[in-house]
Amino acid sequence: MKAICVHEFGGPEVLRLQEAPMPQPGPGEVLVRMQAAGVNPVETYIRAGTYARLPELPYTPGNDAAGMVEQVGAEVSEFKSGDRVYTAGSMSGTYVEFALCKKEQVHRLPTNVSFAQGAAMGTPYPTAYRGLLQRAVAKPGETVLVHGASGGVGTAAVQLARARGLRVFGTAGSDDGINLTRQQGAHEVFDHRAPEHFEQIMNATGGHGVDVIVEMLANVNLGKDLTILAKGGRVVIIGSRGPVEIDPRNTMQRDADVRGMILPNTPPAELASIHAALVAGLENGTLRPVIGKEFPLADAAQVHQAVMEPGALGKIVLRTSEK
Which of 80, 86, 131, 283 has the highest local Cβ count within 10 Å? Predict the structure, then answer.
């Protein structure tokens, strides 16, 4: 089978397409014939060797994908050959034609959802759900600001927040991104290229401030986020690319909380409940993953460049099968 393999940490050029042996599922494992794999920014940090947790070399990148069950191992009764599924993690990586997963990493993909959309689920939607609803404990009637609302996690957060009954603000950095964020259900959208957009956000709340901020780029925004929070407001940090200076008095004046998260810290029971909610949202149409671009598996290096470019529109996906 074909797989993308990394033999040394470095730039996108270390992503190489090669032949790899077909994995066989053991007890509690599922072999999935991949149709599409989602690409996340964190995978570029791992490839570069700059992430806190690094795999042993060589390795195949990827956690998010969708396809059909090819084979199940012993002690697996939840799935059978031919089932449509999406993956949230894998044992073998997902930039590959066949991926080996633990059964807990595999989730049913409703028939009304494409494989490309399924590949957009595994990291962005649980991250948005965990950050917004479990860490920030956003409540119906509150106002939430989603920074970077046009990207994979951002569109997921907007959809989840709107379905939860929140007043949803979003920021984006292009006209297309602004339009997409509105289409996903945001009540107000702000251009983060405008120097005064934080003032615009505060004015849109009538001076009350924002109750919850979903922060994708804390090293740029956190200091200003704290100035537009309502009393008792929460910032949940989902992404950051470096240090930032803040004034702690801005948290003191508002009894504000800054809460970090990474998805691997989620307890198994809470993660299972997240995916149960996400599958239900896919089934009833509340959740609608947005696909920005699709590339063939051989273009993985190009995709690792594209996923880090500003102005993201939805999820970038690799086609792992041309059938």
Answer: 86
Distance, in Å, from the CA atom of 238 to the CA atom of 156, rounded to the nearest integer, reads 13
Residues in the chain, overall count = 323
Q: 3-state DSSP call for residue 195?
A: coil
Q: What is the pLDDT of residues 294-315, one digit of tens each?
A: 999 999 999 999 998 877 788 9
Distance CA 322, CA 33 (A): 12
For residue 322, name the pLDDT band (cuts at 50, 70, 90): low
HEC states along 11-70?
A: CHHHCEEEECCCCCCCCCEEEEEEEEEEECHHHHHHHHCCCCCCCCCCECCCCEEEEEEE
Tokens of 243: 């240090």
Asked if 212 and 143 count as a contact pair (C-beta separation under 8 A), the reply is yes
Strands (DSSP E) found in 109-166: 143-146
**Contact between residue 270 and residue 247 where contact means Cβ atoms under 8 Å apart:** no
pLDDT score of 323: 52
Q: What is the rounded distance in angstroms from the CA atom of residue 311 to the CA atom of residue 178?
A: 10
**Token couple for 206:** 């009538």
pTM over 0.85: yes
Largest Cα span, the chain: 60
Peptide bond before 58: cis, by omega within 30 degrees of 0?
yes
